[in-house]
């Protein structure tokens, strides 16, 4: 009877112990990291992958060299497969290569040609390189990710260069004008044009011109000025125009264009003597005024003589009229042969 009656009590104790054990295990699993699932690490790579360049230029074919180096194995029957299927990049030519052996520490290289479209400019494209090889007792496979950044390109040219004036006198200002063309596929930033200092010119504030952004296939005109030194001898001198700009990789570049200017000297004119100046005046303009003066003097003389003649005739006619009207008057004598002091024409 005691055994039968003690059985339920013993079961209750067993279940209580089991419950306490479960609670303890659960508590320990949440509090102690030793019960956590250990992380899974990738198997160490046996082949080192190196790429000659991780940047691609859009719009052109890019040749990239890939080098494979065995780290710790003598590898046999190495196969490499390059995949660009998840990118806009285009692989030109084969995408798989095979090498019979690659001993520890040795390397092999192969070239790939990749075309990047302009739509990929500014993006990072990831390709996968799968390597499989066979060694005694091993058939491992490694997958390596190769990232490429796609950039654009800039090709700046200077054309339609003009020099004004040409030739230019020493000590005088000279202006150089031209156009800039970006033949690339991305904009050139922070563009400026300047005249490179030389012994021929004196630079001023107008010797540099800021242009800013130059978009592809959009010509931009500019002009820069300087002053030719007064002590420069006559001749033809080179003047260098420099264009500085920044590309989409934040790298500054510069191009130059050499322009030829011809320098001359203006001869100083000697001041003529007073007599020589009068002669020059007569030759150039004075004869006109002299002719007019002679004509005026001749006309005035003729007018004066005509008036004197008219006055003499009037005096004679008055005397004759007085004689006719007063024949008996005494003390009045009229000389019929009277002539005025000046000839009457």
Q: What is the CATH top level name of the largest domain?
A: Mainly Beta
Number of domains: 3
> What is the number of helices?
2
CATH superfamily of the largest domain, please? Immunoglobulins
**DSSP strand (E) fraction?**
35-45%
Description:
By secondary structure, the protein is of the alpha+beta class. It folds into three domains: 47-151, Immunoglobulin-like (Sandwich); 156-264, Immunoglobulin-like, CATH 2.60.40; 295-320 and 337-345. Helix content is 24%, strand content 41%. The chain contains two helices and 18 strands. The protein has helices at 2-31, 274-325; strands at 47-51, 55-57, 61-70, 75-83, 90-92, 96-102, 107-115, 124-134, 141-151, 156-164, 168-169, 173-182, 188-195, 201-203, 208-214, 220-228, 235-246, 252-264. It is rod-shaped. Residues 1-6 and 31-42 have low confidence and may be disordered.
Task: Offer a few descriptive terms.
345 residues; alpha+beta; Immunoglobulin-like; 3 domains; 5-stranded mixed sheet; 24% helix; 41% strand; disordered N terminus
Q: Can you describe this structure in just a few lines?
A:
The chain has 345 residues and is of the alpha+beta class. It folds into 3 domains: 47-151, Immunoglobulins (Immunoglobulin-like), CATH 2.60.40.10; 156-264, Immunoglobulins (Immunoglobulin-like), CATH 2.60.40.10; 295-320 and 337-345.
